[in-house]
Design a protein that fits this description.
This protein has about 575 residues and is α+β, with helices and mostly antiparallel strands. It has 18 helices and 18 strands. About 35% of the residues lie in helices and about 15% in strands.
Length: about 575
């Protein structure tokens, strides 16, 4: 049976199970709930858990593990994640920080040569580029704290997909083509992810026997089997033999941290997003606070986009110079959420001209120090619990390194640190000492799972896209505030500015030629993206029209999902 037929079959069943009858706001949670992911197999696994009586946390655990198997190019047990949750029982929002940590032998200049020049690929390829993973720990943590089913039950779909195999999709083939030479660098990696040394064709069955064994251990003994004992020792030995610096202590010490969310409002809309070490909540809220001083609807489309660019420029500037792991910072950044600070930033915006980056305060301090290869999913259950998760191994196929006998493809998230003062990382971001490499530190991230709430209803959203994630969330939020629906939010043409480099990166349809001409005359510099960016996933509960909307980004290579109930 072809995969398209399988999709149609489970989709029909899930429609009957999940959404029979009209869904009204006060009856929403009489349904089984809703799931949206970037992968058909992960969606089906999550929906099955809900249909069998599991809660949103159960379904999210299953989905996270499943994506770790069926999207190895984007995330996995060798990576990290941020979970944003709303617990209906306690009526509280929480952020679960499962970001990777720097090994204890890390140091500020570890990726520089004796002349303080960056060693090519040192922070992106191989085990030296890998932080200590958080996903195995968060699966166990969520299950112990919020789950209703056994962890072994929830991880079974991932185990079966790993041991039995599954047909790879176009995104897998694209990523493997892009990273072919890196995948061939390590025999263990090549043997798993390539077909006799070549990029497989769509439909090739990927089996991950060692990964299945690892999942089986976690099913039986929980995350401790990953972070301690013989497995941890085996993993560390392989990493050290290939130039890495992990130790068993690094793994033993890893913990998931519950943190406060970032809360802000814009035009009567509540925005709930993760706090540091995700920069998303602060940058998103700061940009919206700047824009709150304008009536955007009263301006032309060109001026409106100019103001959005200028707000992003200033918010990303604050990201660059001030943000990092909050456990390594002395300064509170709560002021970034205040209207008074936004008003000061707004004073420097000229409605007719682009800002010269050099004029921003501290733009040139005496000392400067500082992902599509990610996935996002969302779940809501019949009890009203909500989960939004963004998880990653950073680049396509992460570090390209698999410790022998584990099946675990390691991340290359160490590149998200500021590896040299004032120098771009692979996403063009620069930073300062707040995000410099330190032992045990969590690197700054742009992953931004987000909730939007108003009298109209709520939205659960997120996207991959590296440094562009926050601007994509911002544009989607503005679209919803203007009356857009889930489909229009995921389909919206995108543009982005991150302070440095000083240009507007844009998708072809984001601007018409006259807008570009006018904005260039104002001093903006444009660079058209070679490809569309993002793969946004949304669940929306629309009070006004009494319906749930689910939408998957049409930019995804899998068949996009646009459903209304």
């Amino acid at each position: 049976m072809k995969i398209s037929k399988i999709f149609c079959h489970w989709f029909y069943i899930s429609f009957i199970l999940f959404y029979s009858g009209t869904v009204f706001p006060n009856e929403l949670f009489k349904s089984k709930g809703a799931v949206v992911t970037s992968n058909v197999l992960a969606t089906a696994a999550g929906e099955k858990i809900l249909a069998e009586g599991g809660n949103a946390y159960d379904a999210a655990t299953t989905i996270s593990a499943m994506l770790s198997v069926v999207e190895p190019f984007a995330s996995g047990l060798g990576g990290g994640a941020f979970w944003l949750i709303y617990d209906a029982k306690s009526k509280k929002y929480k952020m679960l920080d499962a970001r990777e940590t720097a090994p204890l032998q890390s140091h500020k200049n570890m990726y520089l040569d004796e002349n303080e020049k960056i060693i090519k690929n040192s922070s992106t390829l191989g085990p030296l580029s890998a932080g200590i993973p958080g996903i195995p720990a968060v699966l166990s943590y969520v299950n112990d704290t919020y789950g209703s089913k056994k962890l072994s039950t929830l991880l079974t779909p991932a185990y079966k997909a790993a041991i039995n195999g599954f047909p790879v999709n176009e995104r897998y083939v694209k990523g493997a083509n892009y990273k072919k030479e890196w995948l061939k660098k390590y025999k263990e990696t090549e043997a798993i992810f390539l077909d006799k040394g070549e990029v497989p064709k769509k439909g090739w069955i990927l089996k991950q026997t060692d990964l299945a064994k690892t999942i089986k251990k976690i099913m039986k003994d929980g995350h401790k089997s990953f972070y301690t004992g013989s497995f941890a020792k085996k993993m560390v030995e392989s990493i050290q033999n290939n130039g890495g610096i992990w130790s068993e202590e690094d793994l033993n010490r890893y913990k998931v941290i519950e943190r406060e969310t970032v809360r802000s409002t814009y035009k009567g809309i509540s925005i709930i997003a993760p706090g540091l070490p995700s920069s998303g909540g602060l940058v998103l809220s700061n940009a919206l606070n700047i824009l709150a001083g304008y009536e955007l609807d009263e301006f032309s489309s060109t001026t409106k986009k100019h103001l959005i660019i200028e707000a992003l420029r200033r918010a990303y500037y604050e990201r660059a110079i001030k943000m990092g792991d909050p456990d390594f910072m002395d300064e509170s950044l709560e002021f970034l959420l205040t209207p008074s600070f936004a008003a000061k930033q707004r004073e420097s915006i000229n409605i007719n001209y682009a800002t010269d980056n050099q004029t921003l305060e501290f733009a040139n301090p005496p000392y400067q120090g500082q992902g599509n290869d990610t996935t996002h999913f969302a779940v809501i259950d019949k009890f009203g619990n909500r989960v939004a998760v963004t998880q990653s191994i950073n680049f396509w196929f992460g570090s390209s390194f698999v410790p022998k006998g584990t099946g675990i493809l390691l991340n290359n998230e160490m590149d998200d640190f500021s590896i040299k003062p004032g120098t771009e990382n692979s996403y063009g971001l620069i930073g300062y000492d707040a995000n410099a490499v330190e032992p045990g530190k969590r690197m700054l991230s742009s992953m931004t799972p987000t909730f939007l709430e108003s009298d109209r209803g709520f939205v659960i959203l997120g996207t991959p896209g590296g440094s562009r994630i926050i601007s994509m969330i911002l544009l989607a939020a503005l679209e919803w505030i203007d009356g857009g629906d889930a489909k229009s939010m995921v389909s919206l043409p995108r543009f982005h500015h991150q302070y440095h480099p000083d240009y507007v990166l844009y998708e072809e349809e984001a601007f018409i030629p006259s807008e570009i001409n006018e904005l260039e005359s104002m001093g903006h510099i444009f660079k058209k993206s070679k490809r569309q960016f993002g793969n946004m996933q949304i669940i929306m509960w629309d009070h006004e029209n009494n319906k749930i909307e689910i939408a998957s980004d049409p930019r995804g290579k899998e068949k996009s999902r646009e459903e209304v109930y």
